[in-house]
Design a protein that fits this description.
By secondary structure, this protein is an alpha/beta fold. It has one domain: Methylglyoxal synthase-like domain (Rossmann fold, 3-Layer(aba) Sandwich). The chain contains six helices and five strands. Helix 3 links the parallel strand 2 and strand 3. Helix 1 crosses helix 3. It binds 1,3-dihydroxyacetonephosphate (13P). The site of 1,3-dihydroxyacetonephosphate has 12 residues, from helix 3 and helix 4.
Length: 125
């Protein structure tokens, strides 16, 4: 399964913690990430990650294009709801495309945990 991992700056530590908690799961999948998120994941977990550009420089749009082309199955995007993002239109566009193509997108840890449980269940079914 192809999984995109993204986190806004104030949520990056939370995403790293989440990935470490579910390391065995993530080892079994092909990972993609926006630039800085990807670098942090590689440094802190040793996982292989295909890095796109940084979010504000077009990374969200790159992931969006992959969604439109059927190249992403799930997105885990820890958003920061309390900080304005200069590239908010890109973020909204990615959320919209996930709805257009019915790609599961988790924007917080609770939903991400639920999605992982579902994917584990689906793998075994
Ligand atoms: O801004 C982002 C998502 O909107 C994330 O980008 P980075 O992973 O490059 O910080």
């Amino acid at each position: 399964m192809k999984i995109a991992l993204i986190a806004h700056d104030k949520k990056k530590d939370d995403l790293l913690k989440f990935i470490r908690l579910h390391l065995e799961f993530f080892k079994d999948h092909e990972l993609f990430a926006t630039g800085t998120t990807g670098t942090r994941i590689i440094e802190h977990t040793g996982l292989e990650v295909n890095r796109c550009k940084s979010g504000p420089l077009g990374g969200d749009q790159e992931i969006g294009a992959m969604v439109a082309n059927g190249a992403i199955d799930t997105i885990i995007f820890f958003r920061d709801p309390l900080t304005a993002q200069p590239h908010e239109p890109d973020v909204s566009a990615l959320l919209r495309l996930s709805d257009v193509y019915d790609v599961p997108l988790a924007t917080n840890e609770g939903t991400a945990s639920a999605v992982l449980h579902y994917l584990n269940y689906k793998d075994r079914a």
